Amino acid sequence: GAVVSQHPSRVICKSGTSVKIECRSLDFQATTMFWYRQFPKQSLMLMATSNEGSKATYEQGVEKDKFLINHASLTLSTLTVTSAHPEDSSFYICSAREDSSSPLHFGNGTRLTVT
Amino acid sequence: ELKVEQNPLFLSMQEGKNYTIYCNYSTTSDRLYWYRQDPGKSLESLFVLLSNGAVKQEGRLMASLDTKARLSTLHITAAVHDLSATYFCAVQVGKLIFGTGTLLAVQP
Question: What is the structure's pLDDT at B1?
């Protein structure tokens, strides 16, 4: 089946630094990728939708200058958390689909801890 | 704004018992998904429901969809400990919006 690879699986960084998370579709071309954030014991909250070659569409309340999303190819999207703070510590999950009628495939998630 | 609510939020049940998780959503949708999440892990896809009256079953889990009532159910039959996890429904309206989640704990 379709595989989405997310890297890294865990990252610890210091306050004020930036962290980049990669999401790759391994065996299909992902026209659309979605980035979610999940705080402990909570649901997944959609942060943004990215379409290949276009600017990402951010959900209300998500700072686009803080969470930089790049979807430069049909197999790779990146999320960069800039100037990270402890409150950005969370589980970030990407998902990808080939087209609007295709199912979503999820990455394994990235546990970000900001100290 | 689309709202997707699950009931209950937490469910503790004994092995062998049956129970149903409910998922209500506030607008029309293309499709509805059910996922399982184990602690510290990403999502495992369980079911996708595409039309009114759709019913799907896999093992001890059965999902159904009533688009007129904007309601989906996930029924658990004769629960076993291995089913302990958090279950999410998710509604697709272009993007995928997740429900609040139901933490299921099956006690021996």
Answer: 78
